[in-house]
Design a protein that fits this description.
It is a single chain. This protein has 225 residues and is an alpha/beta fold. It has a single domain, classed as NAD(P)-binding Rossmann-like Domain (Rossmann fold, 3-Layer(aba) Sandwich). The chain is 38% helix and 16% strand. It contains five helices and seven strands. It has a seven-stranded parallel beta sheet, with helices on both faces. Helix 4 links the parallel strand 5 and strand 6. Helix 1 crosses helix 5, helix 2 runs parallel beside helix 3 and helix 3 packs parallel to helix 4. 39% of the residues are buried. Belongs to the short-chain dehydrogenases/reductases (SDR) family.
């Protein structure tokens, strides 16, 4: 059975990816700061409680995965959060919190499994970036900084892993109906669904091994919000 790691898998895009790959009979390993009991209803899903902004908990999660599988076929770095604000007025510590969760978690977890992928000359790493990775938003502040950094990390990984047949794909979703948009007075049709992003990841992974979709930009049909 093939295996996939999906960080931040209890809600939103992460949850949709977990459900999609569980449905496709993958062994799914996921984590979040709090557990969602409904995950237990999904077959082949293993949950570990962890705050990936803490390097020690990244290592603990990686050890948990290795206890249950020898090889990881897919890694989806999805953990992240958003606090609106501007560089000149956001609270002290906002940048550090965003970088630790949105970038460092992906960096440290990737390092836990990428050497195994290199040795096997097989694997696929997805980094869930954002349209904020390429577009500066007035109220984006440290979130934009962190997502620009994550896309940069993806580009570096892509170049490094080319010779080893390990694929790297950056996913750049626009407005997706998740908890980040809670309380916004807009119709649901103005957003993409988390399931749409999960389907794109599935499709990208099922491409022939000779081809990689390096960057995938998704927006609602009516445009970003």
């Amino acid at each position: 059975m093939k295996s996939i790691i999906v960080t931040g898998g209890t809600k939103g895009i992460g949850r949709a990816i977990v459900e999609k790959f569980a449905q496709e009979q993958y062994q799914v390993f996921t984590c979040a700061r709090t557990e969602d009991e409904s995950l237990k209803e999904l077959s082949n899903v293993y949950f570990f409680k962890a705050d990936l902004s803490q390097r020690s908990e990244v290592i603990a999660f990686a050890d948990f995965v290795r206890q249950h599988t020898e090889n990881v076929d897919i890694l989806v770095n999805n953990t992240g959060f958003f606090i609106p604000g501007q560089i000149h007025n956001e609270e002290e510590g906002t940048l550090e919190a965003m970088i630790e969760t949105n970038v460092y978690s992906a960096y440290h977890l990737t390092r836990q499994f990428v050497n195994q992928m290199i040795a096997l000359r097989s694997g696929h790493i997805f980094n869930i970036c954002s349209t904020a990775s390429i577009t500066a938003y007035t109220n984006g502040g440290s979130y934009c900084i962190s997502k620009f950094a994550l896309l940069g990390m993806s580009k570096v990984l892509r170049e490094e892993l080319k010779p080893f047949n390990v694929r790297v794909t950056s996913i750049l979703p626009g407005a997706t109906l998740t908890n980040s948009w809670a309380g916004v007075d807009l119709p649901t049709e103005r957003f993409m669904r988390s399931e749409d992003v999960a389907e794109v990841i599935w499709t990208a992974h099922k491409m022939p091994a000779s081809t990689v979709l390096e960057e995938i930009l998704l927006r609602p049909q009516l445009g970003d919000i």
